[in-house]
User: What shape does this take?
Amino acid sequence: MNYLIPLMVIIPILCALIVNVIGEKNRTTRLLSILVGIAIPVIALVAVPGVQYFGGHNPSLIGSMLPASLNGTLASMYNTGIVYVFSDFERIFIFIMGLVAFLAVLTYFTEKKEISGPYLYLIFMGLAAVTALMLSDDIFNMYVFFEITALAQVGIIIATNTDDNYEIALKYLIIGSIGGPMLLLGIGFILGTIGSLNITDIAYVINHNLVDPLSPGLVIGFVLILFGWFYVSGLPPFHTIKSAVYSKARPNGAAILQGFSVMCMLAFGIALIRIFHHMPYFNQLLVLFAIIAMVLSVSMAAMQWDFRRMIAFLAVGELGFVALGMGIGTELSLTAALFQATNEILISALLFIGFGTVYYLTKTSDTRKLGGLISVNSTMAIMVLLGGFAMAGVPPFNGFMSKLMLVQSAFDAGYPELALIAIFVSITIFFTFVKAFHTIYLQPRPKDLKFAHETIPKEALFAVGVLLVVCLILGLCPWIVTNVFSSFVGGLI
Amino acid sequence: MSLYDSFLDSIKGMRSKLKNDPATMDNVSGALAAEITVIVSLLLSALLMSHVNMFASVFLVIILAVLLISNMPLAPKIKREQDDSLEKMSFYIIVTLGVLVAVIYWGLKYV
Assistant: This one.
């Protein structure tokens, strides 16, 4: 048994509980948080791929103990307990999410002298929840962990203490009261039709025609889970509230929140593909909502004054590229989608933390009141500029490689229109980013601009530097992750 | 009132409006970029229909062209519809759910 698999979930939960209790003891809390922040990516790197059957419910072992009348039946093959699956695919995402969480926690410590135990509790609970989401092969278990993530997200916004944060948190809860129950209802329909919550079992039953693949229960389950997936990911019509959520969090909080959304999107997206790939119009629906997400979010980003809201919309728009790759549905496009998701976690975190230093210095995110900040710290400005290039898909960064793969896959699949839309949206992202960069860093500094801090924390420079190096490495050597994604996708379709 | 006075009043009115909503290079270029992105993406999406039916695609492009030209500028309308108002967000969420359920649940009967 590989104990490191469940430990990837248990350790952050334990850390969350402890820092919540000892939050006021600054040194101990900081030390513990940093240790756990380092431990999660390290465990993800060293853990051996395997399967964890909770409660010992391994069907191949308990099958012999069943009554003779059940031998050889479908019921004897079902996974009756919760199963965690850990492969190189999960390793990559848990490592990257762990790295982003560590860097975000590190920058949080420099922002606040008095750290908050409950705030760190929410971060670690969210980290544990998204890790469990990636590992779990049980769709109800995934739903439970998603709800924990959603509550952690709301808590992180409330703990932020910015303008209107309570209002946005309340709106997210209200909107969530539509999206979450629909997802649960869809899972209920699947359970009612198939009799199992294990995704492998559900896919087996459908693929072997043991139930009618277009039975009303499965069809309505598909619709509701698809709708729930839009909510989980922040795809339209949930893109406005998702971008509002990111923009109201602290920069380090926003870096983590967008990572949570990408992880949730991937976990449920892969479950959707495994269970419902046979549904008519499945791919077309994904492509339709991907286009709407890309176009609306990036257009909204281009018209923003508030740079935090601008990055938030760009981050949501980038998820449209992930959905586009899933929607095209070929091996290359799915590989590109997974690569794009990896890059989205890294690049958005870089930009949230990098631009977060502007807010740290001036306590404003209104670009009309900013200017000339390149003179404060030119290194940070250049790193943010390169991060923006990575997001827009400029070589040699990782964003270029994943978008190039997406465009190639659209051409190969016979849809040059999709490739052109992706290129146009990338050009708008580039324009939006350059406009914001010029306004904040290059145009003359307004005379009435006041500074809350004189310098940028070294930890923020370190965090952005590390993320930029990872982006560059993945841009120059994409095969580090694409080989893993390609073989994962080969088993998926 | 003489013609001169009414002309002066209209200038003053325009100036006071500009004071409240100054148009700068930044917001005009942002709105233009958004406008072009939306138009190009809509037309390319309409061309996607050619994989199903060429005539439907041509018809859709013509309809879109008329709608787009008669509704310009689109960017401010898109921005207005996507503010943080709970009513608008709930409206679009419920409409999407309704359309998805109706189209897929009943539509699949004819596949």
Q: What stands out?
A: Residues 186 and 223 of chain A are 7 Å apart (CA to CA). The first strand of chain A starts at residue 50 and ends at 53. Residues 281-493 of chain A form one domain.
